[in-house]
Design brief:
The chain is of the alpha+beta class and 158 residues long. It contains seven helices and six strands; from the N terminus they run H-H-E-H-E-E-E-H-E-H-H-E-H. The strands form two sheets. A four-stranded mixed sheet has the order 5-4-1-6, sandwiched between helices. A hairpin with a 4-residue loop joins strand 2 and strand 3. The mean pLDDT is 86.
Length: 158
């Protein structure tokens, strides 16, 4: 695959939002992809992000932003990884720190990390909390469909 990552692809997936929100969501997705650190755990297979979803009010088109009280909806993102060990917090510390440093004063980000096994279990148990959110969410990244990050994008500023 000779495709290279194009931020416009992610931004188009959230085209219902204002440009600033599109940029912030794209940046968060890029940081998550570039700063996921699977080497923090000993796992039987290489770590991979299989999917990144935007869920919650920004996906449902029901967000709020009050400039007078400075209250606003959080960005809610679910990241699905290929193995349960990669849900451990230490795999995500660097990404969370960069997101907080770059976007912390402009937006709140709520990350939930799930494994493919968690999603399979939710399907088997008919867990509508998880399944409904996945169904209604906007896929920002899917490993089987989207281009990899180029070398510069793969290592965001520390």
């Amino acid at each position: 695959m000779n495709d290279i990552y194009a931020r416009e692809v992610v931004m188009a997936r959230v085209g219902h939002l204002i440009r600033r929100k599109q940029y912030e969501i794209e940046r968060i997705a890029r940081i998550l992809r570039g700063c996921f650190d699977p080497d923090q755990v000993l796992a039987p297979e290489p770590g991979r992000i299989t999917r990144i979803l935007l869920i919650g009010p920004y996906a449902r088109r029901g967000w709020y932003e009050d400039k007078h009280t400075l209250q606003f909806s959080d960005y809610e993102l679910w990241v699905i990884v290929n193995h349960p060990l990669f849900t451990e917090e230490r795999c995500w510390c660097r990404a969370r720190n960069i997101i907080e440093r770059e976007l912390g004063n402009r937006c709140a980000v709520d990350l939930n990390i799930l494994s493919k096994a968690d999603v399979r279990a939710a399907r088997a148990e008919r867990d509508h909390f998880i399944l409904d959110r996945i169904e209604a969410g906007i896929t920002l990244y899917r490993a089987s469909r989207d281009a990899p990050l180029n070398a510069r994008e793969a290592s965001p500023r520390r």
